[in-house]
Specification:
The chain is of the alpha+beta class. It has four helices and ten strands; from the N terminus they run H-E-E-E-E-H-E-E-H-H-E-E-E-E. It has a single domain, classed as YwqG-like (Hypothetical protein YwqG fold, Roll), CATH 2.30.320.10. The longest helix is centred in the N-terminal third of the chain and has 12 residues. About 30% of the residues are buried.
């Protein structure tokens, strides 16, 4: 009977957990209402009120819109949109613990436009202007990614894989997931492995988009990083969280 060597077992583990990831290329300019973009004006439904912070009731800042049909591996119709409260005066970021998923100071959602043309979007009349629009014009595929060291360790322990010197050495030598903004791949965690649980099935969500603010003036804490996650079984269930160094 064939007996798998440790080297073969490690290679099989790598093949199992490799994920594709893509880096967005963003350019200044204006696109249609359904275009993938950073900042600018999001697509809104007819007569829809601009999304507001549940704490201060001021308009949320639009950070990101991704058209699922335009992704490197298209998923069909739908727009993923991320909004975040930047009202420092009201302290929403601290009071609402905006770094945690499902915060009252952020909103991430999946919407289905009935057409590519929406009613004219009015800039919120709150003395603030939307961030400068950066259109996502293309995607560059990154090398296949493996999980962060701590997460890889957790996955092995969950499978009850004995972690000896061989596994320790090979895990130490694995490249970390990519930093910066990216679609897909594995999160480049800063401190802890913390996936939100889907509120419908309680399954851990998976990374959809890593937001390191490469193309936005906003900073999460002290040069932190944010993660937009999604349930693998319920794609309309999304969450946003971030950590700081």
């Amino acid at each position: 009977m064939f007996e798998e060597t440790q080297q073969e077992a490690f290679a099989r583990w790598q093949r199992t957990y490799q994920r594709k990831a893509w880096r967005p290329k963003a350019d200044f300019g204006r696109g249609g209402p359904c275009a993938s973009r950073y900042g600018g004006l999001p697509w809104l439904a007819q007569d829809e009120v601009w999304p507001q912070c549940q704490h201060c009731r001021r308009p949320l800042q639009h950070l990101l819109q991704l058209n699922l049909a335009d992704l490197p591996e298209p998923e069909g119709p739908g727009l993923v949109q991320l909004f975040y409260c930047t009202n420092r005066e009201a302290g929403c970021e601290d009071i609402c613990e905006a770094h945690l998923p499902f915060s009252a100071a952020s909103l991430v959602r999946l919407v289905y436009p009935q057409s590519s043309v929406s009613a004219p979007v009015k800039v919120p009349c709150d003395g603030r202007t939307p961030y400068t629009e950066r259109l996502i014009s293309s995607w560059r595929e990154l090398p296949r990614e493996l999980p962060w060291f701590d997460e890889a360790w957790d996955l092995l322990e969950a499978k009850q894989t004995p972690i000896d010197r061989f596994w320790q050495k090979h895990l130490d030598e694995m490249p970390d997931p990519s930093q910066g903004d990216k679609l897909g791949g594995w999160p480049r965690w800063i401190r802890n492995v913390e996936y939100p649980l889907c509120p419908r099935c309680y399954v851990p969500m998976e990374l959809f988009f890593q937001l390191a603010n490469d193309h936005l003036p906003l900073r999460f804490g002290d040069e932190g990083c944010g993660w937009l996650t999604r349930c693998p079984d319920h794609p309309d269930e999304l969450a946003f969280s971030w950590e700081s160094y």
